[in-house]
Amino acid sequence: MDEGTGSCGMALEPDALAEILGRLPPNTRRRLRLVCRHWRHTVDTRTATDLRPRRAKTIVATAETAYVYEDLSAAAERPRELWSHATAASFKGMTMLGTCNGLISLCDDREPGGAITLANPVTGETLPIPPLPPPSYAGGNRKWHRTYSFTHHPATGRYKIVHVPQNLDRVLVFTLGEASWRDVPTVYRGARCDLDAGIVSADGYMYLAVEGTEARVVSFDLDHESFTSVGPLPAILSRKGSWGLTEVHGRLGIAFTHISQDLVRTDVWVMEGVPGNPKWSCWYILQVRRLPHQAASSLWMHQRHCLAGPHFAHSGKHILTLGASNFVFIHVPSGNTRNALHGVVEVNARNQGRVIINNAGQNNHSATTKTFCYIETVEQLSVYKCW
């Protein structure tokens, strides 16, 4: 093989090569990029390591169904069912945790500790993950899915599942390809994780909030498995309101919500830079004004729009919200503004967005309906089973 000319003794047709490489773990594919130019081009453009927005789809999932949207900008598009009770009874009642390179993680809160299963809808494979070691799941019934994060490190190619107990003395880490969970001690002995704020993974880090009188966010380096304080947070968090963590186009985001008599405003601040030395910019603003028929304050709060999660920003052009009756709405933000670099969405009587899915009749939307960025792959889960 001559790397300079790009010729390779293992000459394969592009489709056949992409099919073979797509079945390998991401870290193996990265090493195989060095074989020749042809292989490097195929890995970069035709396998799951290519995470560019042009390939991204959108999943809208509940505890009962999951649908895929190929292109949110197509007004007449009908979503494709990924699974339902009828097609995948084994997923019934599970909560979807996240997606990484086309692999999907689900949590069954009915099992002690929350049983984790990985799935690849394209190949039809599933991979149950070994349960947490006792006494990690002591404490009875709870919403276990809130304590997990399914992550991928872009440089090493490793997939990890991280369990975050509310007591932050330690976290537990399961790396795909290994046989068991590992205890990782933290420097936050006695501190508690604020599970209401959410757990977010982005660009090789996992982020979580620490309970306390002041807003505090820490990062977990997925490569070195060490914690660091994120550093100064947006000044807006010192105001009266609520906030939570989100992911915005591969970056950490903080969504701050302030409620007044006739307006609910959510500002999304995105971290640019690295933990310990962050720089924050306001990327989006969502303003929801009280509609004329929502005279009672309690009714308005129940029916108002809120940002979908954990991924609300899709394809670089749209944001998704959840509204009354479990509807999912799509919006196109206004152009860049002085106060929001990527635009403002105004929801009012004349503009409530376009409905893309109606989950009416299912459970409360804030607890069950989630939206995810998704890239299909034929990567095999069986290569990771070693227990």
TrEMBL record:
**Cross-referenced InterPro entries:** F-box-assoc_dom_typ3, F-box-assoc_interact_dom, F-box-like_dom_sf, F-box_dom, SCF_F-box_component
- Which Pfam families does this one have? F-box, FBA_3
Under the heading SUPFAM superfamilies, the entry gives: F-box domain
Residues covered by the F-box domain: 12-52
The protein's name = F-box domain-containing protein
Taxonomic lineage is: Eukaryota, Viridiplantae, Streptophyta, Embryophyta, Tracheophyta
